[in-house]
Amino acid sequence: MIRPLQRDDYRNWLHEFESRRPSQHRHDKGRMDMTECTEEWFADLVEKHQDLALNDQAHIFGVFRKEDNRHLGMIDFSTLFRDHFQWGRIGYTIHNQYWKNGYGKEAVKEALQIAFNDLNFHRIEAHINLDNTPSISLAESVGMEFECVRKGFIYEFDKWTDHVVYVKNSES
Fold it and tell me: Does 12 have pLDDT greater than 90?
């Protein structure tokens, strides 16, 4: 189930972040310090997500397991350009304690339908580090197609890094 976070998600959200395993690879944040993530902080986060959506800057969704409403991760869409392009970027993360259960694939497939049908994007891109093979595999498994490598695309790890771009259009 994919939906915006709500204030009453706090305890579930916090529990799942605190239940993460240690980092499994360099693109997995693993366990994180959640001491600053109070209920008030979370309420502000929910409000910020709502403001970003109202301004069509970003649309941020929690991923929840249908059976028990456990928080599994997050999916977001950033609006890159509207007008004649209707172009956005997808980001996704599933808590590492839930990897290899098909949750990522199911969530991203559903999120892409939301992007095309509800948010009216025509083109969605995933920008992925060259060595992030789990993310590349997920993009491919939901029908995203390799488009290109963007050289020196994002500043991270104290340098400009290359990224592969996977794309899906509303017609594909």
Answer: yes
DSSP assigned state of 9: G
* Predicted confidence (pLDDT) per residue in 111-122, tens digit: 999 999 999 999
The per-residue pLDDT for 152 is 96
pTM of the model: 0.94
Q: Which structure tokens are listed for 12?
A: 């579930």
Q: What angle do CA 150, 155, 157 make, to 5 degrees?
A: 115
**CB of 34 closer than 8 Å to CB of 10:** no
Share of the chain above pLDDT 90, in %: 97
Look up residue 13 and give its two tokens: 């959200």
Distance separating alpha carbons of residues 117 and 65, to the nearest angstrom: 22
Comparing C-alpha atoms, which of 49, 48, 69, 43 is closest to residue 61? 49
The vertex-134 CA angle with 50 and 20, nearest 5°, equals 60
Cβ count near 55 (within 10 Å): 9
Q: Measured in whole angstroms, how far is the alpha carbon of residue 131 from the centre of its chain?
A: 18
Dig out the tokens for 20 from the structure: 């993460």
